[in-house]
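Exercise 7b. Backbone tokens:
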């Protein structure tokens, strides 16, 4: 781990923020997710059903797929990659909300802001990240708080660490 780029716990400051790159949701993404997850509800996979019953008249993208795709974007920027280096674990998501649906062809991106940090051991602590997922029109799709467990530099300098 490179000490000049890693965002160890002690280097993280409340208020740090970044924006991910974008990713366009494709038909293949929707089909593959439906097959993998077993979530093949008509709202996501049936064109005729959606023409009649969808709020947009088109197929919607499963909100869980949007959430998963956001995670594929996290490490695309230097800030995100550098905070991932000393990450010891993802502890969960708090207050997650879906505000709007995504559609096939939407390009999503995320914003991330450090809102709190709490050192709970001498060599590591919790970091709270406000996450927002938007589409290409800057419409908020989903948001919530991720909680990550981040190590201090001293944690990785221990001789018994891999």
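Sequence design result:
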């Amino acid at each position: 781990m490179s000490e000049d780029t890693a965002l160890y716990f002690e280097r993280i400051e409340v208020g740090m923020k970044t924006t991910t790159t974008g990713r366009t949701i494709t038909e293949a993404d929707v089909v593959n997710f439906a097959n993998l997850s077993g979530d093949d509800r008509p709202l996501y996979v049936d064109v005729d059903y959606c023409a009649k019953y969808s709020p947009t008249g088109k197929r919607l993208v499963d909100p869980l797929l949007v959430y998963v795709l956001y995670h594929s974007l996290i490490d695309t920027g230097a800030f995100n990659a550098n905070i991932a280096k000393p990450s010891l674990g993802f502890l969960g998501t708090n207050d997650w909300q879906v505000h709007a649906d995504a559609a096939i062809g939407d390009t999503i991106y995320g914003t991330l802001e450090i809102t709190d940090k709490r050192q709970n051991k001498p060599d590591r602590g919790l970091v709270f990240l406000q996450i927002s997922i938007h589409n290409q029109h800057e419409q908020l799709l989903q948001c919530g708080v991720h909680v990550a467990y981040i190590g201090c530099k001293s944690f990785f300098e221990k001789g018994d660490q891999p």
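Instructor comment: The domain at 9-156 is CATH 3.10.129.10 (Thiol Ester Dehydrase; Chain A). The CA atoms of residues 75 and 154 lie 23 Å apart.
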